[in-house]
Amino acid sequence: MLLVTNNEKVREKFGSLCTLQYVEGGHVDVLIHVRDLVHQGHKLLTHPLAGSVKPNETPFRSVALDDASGALDLESLELIEAALNVCRQFPPRFHRGEDAPADMREDFAEIDFRLIDGAIAPQLQ
């Protein structure tokens, strides 16, 4: 499994358990990196906009992909492009984690962590 994140909490827990690529930047930067990986033949394992937090509200995003690259997966490509289009429709409230107030930053990081933890932890045990 390949995990792409800009969330330090996710990196700390999963960095030694799977292949992890840490992205410096905001959630849109993560999605662009994921899109590039999909173009290289990686398949999405989690939805790029998982959770009920609006994409323009949170600076954190974590997405799991298959670590083996193959043929271009059109469903993954459609999902990541749709996610990026949603993000383009709404200007982000916080571009990066450090742009958010400390208490909000911690809450957003925790929400992202719990979403990805619930999705991938069972597969890593």
In short, what is this structure?
The chain is mainly α and 125 residues long. Helices cover 47% and strands 10% of the residues.
SS summary, helix count: 4
Number of strands: 3
Fraction of residues in β-strands: 5-15%
Q: What strand order characterises the main sheet? A: 2-1-3
Name the structural class.
Answer: mainly alpha
**Bulk shape:** globular
What is the helix/strand order? EHEHEHH
For the report, how would you describe the main beta sheet? 3 strands, mixed
Structural domain count: 1
What is the gyration radius calculated from CA atoms? 13 Å
Mean model confidence by pLDDT: 92
Query: How far is it from the N-terminal to the C-terminal residue, by CA?
Result: 13 Å
Protein name: GrdX family protein
InterPro entries: GrdX-like (IPR047735)
Note down, in words, how this protein is organized.
The protein is mainly alpha-helical and 125 residues long. The chain has one domain (2-124). Helix content is 47%, strand content 10%. The protein is built from four helices and three strands, in the order E-H-E-H-E-H-H. The protein has helices at residues 8-14, 27-39, 74-89, 102-124, and strands at residues 2-5, 19-22, 62-65. It has a three-stranded mixed β-sheet with strand order 2-1-3, sandwiched between helices. Strand 1, helix 1 and strand 2 (19-22) form a beta-alpha-beta unit. The chain starts with a strand and ends with a helix. 34% of the residues are buried. The mean pLDDT is 92.
Task: Provide key terms for this protein.
mainly alpha, single chain, three-stranded mixed sheet, 47% helix, 125 residues
